[in-house]
Design brief:
This is RHS protein. This protein has about 575 residues and is mainly beta. Helices cover about 10% and strands about 35% of the residues. It has a domain of about 110 residues.
Length: about 575
């Protein structure tokens, strides 16, 4: 199969041609990219990957357990990465080791609390980090050897400055509700428009797009188009001075930028950033199939594409002469670097073909890089670079913002800087990234979700059931208002998937906050959810959504209801928490 992307950028019309091959099950087995380099995937069964080749040379090998989870990854035959899981299927340990050395390059161990939240990471290179959460699962503290980060939120989950909060008599724990980590009298962010945080000040336009950010270091100004896409940025700060312009395709994917006169072109492979190319080199990104988790990058000659051909009605078309029909030719070799990511797919290290660490980073809780170290690779003869951050995000050095396809994310405040393009369907807080950045991701900039292996989920489910928890469909598969709702078909969503389930105690003694699942559910719960689903369908038809937008909207509805159930706010039957209500 052939596809080509034709762009008119900087006064130059060029096309970038891809060639793909698929097996009989529809799995992509081979791709020749626009620069002529070929990527092959070795698979077994229904599409489980056990190897990756670049230009015919095997670069990555995988070993998997009986549940098809990755247990061993061998990179360039020089480095091995092992992953261990606990009985609930969660990642317990990751070890990176050279084949010639008994000592590991890096080792990470993960610990979880009684309700399954990540409570501690022990990193052999960076030390230990402890995490603490409030009753609804929002991250409120991250303590590492170099910093103690504290976070607070208003009722709509807007981040607010903890130093503004003081305990009052009204904030003391209620006798009927579990102790909260925050007082009742919390400052509220009106309209979800964060105006000030940690010495920073923010201004917005009438559509809720951030137009000015002032910090002690200086000021940034932003200009937006009619589709709420960032058009330009002007930065005047102590450490950087820049003017940038940004360009997008019809899908809202960023295809180019110009910063202080330097131009970069971006290429896409479906939903994922495939490459970036400037006048010096092209950097390509390869991902674990079907995910946004980076697996490797290779650096080669700049991606030049071909001049877009122009035909008139009198020209005779000869397919053999059409440059768009030809497979791109490779120019030169490629230097390969391998990603080593954490439990949510955020890059921690890059190693080269010799097994040397050539790039590493440490992060603050919400994804801001605290320290980045890039080294020259002896094997490749170049310095490794990596702009990838949280899944689906690419950091812009000129602003510090993370481009996240449908929006830009500010890792300094843990929020998006423009409204959710799917509106309130994506959640009542249209700027929120996630309640918990160490366990949730949002690769599309539309709706947060957990990155989990289905087999791992099933093990955790079995563990919860054995403790007395019951399965609850968040969107009911039995209620007539929801089970055949049009939104489900538009989203291509399976109500029986784990994404639509939560496990609730059948007795209040099993969990301090979760809603109790013991008795007949009132109809009003499904009525409320059905209304939200109706709104999503109406907005989607008005805006011409595709399946991905409908799916993100439905998952947003489910995520909000999940939070209510986790907090015990939902009254599912006569057995309920004292503070619960039916809707």
């Amino acid at each position: 199969m052939r596809e080509h992307h034709a762009y008119d950028l900087f006064g130059d019309r060029r096309s970038y041609v891809w060639h793909h091959e698929y097996d009989e099950l529809g799995n992509r087995r081979r791709t020749v990219r626009p620069d002529g380099h070929a990527v092959d995937w070795l698979m077994y069964g229904s599409g489980h990957v056990h190897g990756m080749l670049l230009d015919g040379e095997e670069r990555v090998q995988f070993e998997r357990d009986d549940l098809h989870r990755e247990t061993v990854r061998v990179l360039s035959s020089k480095v091995g990465q092992r992953t261990h899981y606990d009985p609930a299927g969660r990642v317990l340990q990751q070890t990176i080791q050279r084949s010639t050395s008994p000592a590991p390059l890096a080792e990470r161990r993960y610990r979880y609390d009684a309700v399954g939240q990540l409570s501690r990471i022990e990193d052999s290179r960076k030390g230990g980090t402890d995490y603490r959460y409030d009753p609804v699962g929002r991250l409120i503290e991250a303590i590492s050897p170099v910093a103690k980060e504290r976070f607070a939120f208003d009722p709509a989950s807007n981040i607010i400055d903890p130093v503004r909060i003081t305990e009052t008599p009204a904030s003391r724990p209620s006798p009927v509700r579990p102790e909260s980590t925050l007082p009742v009298e919390v400052p509220k962010v009106l309209g979800n428009l964060l105006k000030a945080y940690a010495g920073m000040h923010f201004e917005y336009d009438a559509r809720g797009n951030l137009v000015r950010k002032r910090t002690p270091a200086g000021q940034q100004e932003y200009e937006w188009d009619e589709f709420n896409r960032l058009l330009s940025a002007r930065v005047a700060e102590t450490s950087r001075q820049s003017q940038a312009r940004y360009f997008y395709d019809a899908f809202g994917r960023r295809i180019a930028k110009e910063v202080n006169g330097e131009r970069t072109v971006f290429g896409w492979d479906g939903d994922t950033l495939a490459y970036e190319s400037d006048g010096e080199r092209g950097t390509h990104y390869l991902y674990e199939p079907g995910t946004f988790v980076p697996l490797a990058q290779y650096v080669a000659e700049p991606v030049e594409g071909i001049e877009t051909p122009v035909w008139t009605s009198t020209d005779r078309y000869v397919p053999e002469d059409d440059p768009l029909q030809k497979v791109p030719e490779r120019r030169g070799d490629a230097a390969v670097f391998y990603y080593h990511c954490d439990q949510i797919g955020t890059p921690q290290l890059l190693t080269d073909d010799d097994g040397d660490v050539v790039w590493e980073a440490s992060y603050k809780a919400w994804g801001e890089a605290r320290e980045v170290i890039a080294r020259a690779s002896k094997a490749a003869g170049i310095v490794a670079k990596n702009p990838l951050r949280f899944q689906g995000q690419q950091v812009d050095a000129e602003t510090g913002l993370h481009y996240n396809w449908h929006r830009y994310y500010d890792s300094g405040i843990g929020r998006f800087v423009s409204k959710d393009p799917i509106g309130l369907v994506g959640g009542i807080n249209v700027y929120q990234y996630a309640s918990n950045p160490v366990e949730w991701i949002d690769p599309l900039g539309l709706a947060p979700r957990r990155p989990a292996h289905e087999a791992s989920i099933q093990r955790r489910v079995n563990c919860l059931k054995s403790q007395g928890f019951q399965e609850h469909h968040i969107i009911s598969d039995k209620n007539s208002q929801t089970k055949n709702h049009p939104l489900i078909a538009l989203a291509g969503f399976d109500l029986q998937s784990q994404a639509n389930k939560i496990y609730l105690p059948d007795d209040e003694s099993l969990h301090p906050t979760r809603s109790i699942h013991n008795g007949r559910h009132p109809n009003i719960v499904s009525t409320n959810l059905s209304r939200q689903m109706n709104d999503a369908v109406v907005i989607g038809k008005q805006q011409g959504w595709g399946q991905k937008q409908y799916d993100a909207a439905l998952r947003g509805i489910i995520a909000r209801e999940r939070m209510e159930l986790k907090a015990g706010n939902r009254m599912l039957n006569k057995n309920h928490r004292p503070w619960a209500c039916p809707n």
